Please model this.
Amino acid sequence: MDTLGKMIAAGYLMHHLPLEEPMELLTVQEVAKIFRVDDSTVRRWIQAGTFPAVELPHKRKRTAYRIRRSDIERILGNEKG
Model:
């Protein structure tokens, strides 16, 4: 099984995003800057389901997430196409 398959099987990708190409992913800090809020606010929005996010596997205290730029643009009304 490849690394991604192992991560999915182990439950690392709890906030799963459908795969699409190309996909620009933003950090919690980048999203917080866009909305001019604290990082913890963005984390609460992710946990509440406001933003679909990818949960990254790591061994730190806080969970690492990535959010699709297209989801942010949709929320802001800047959707392309």
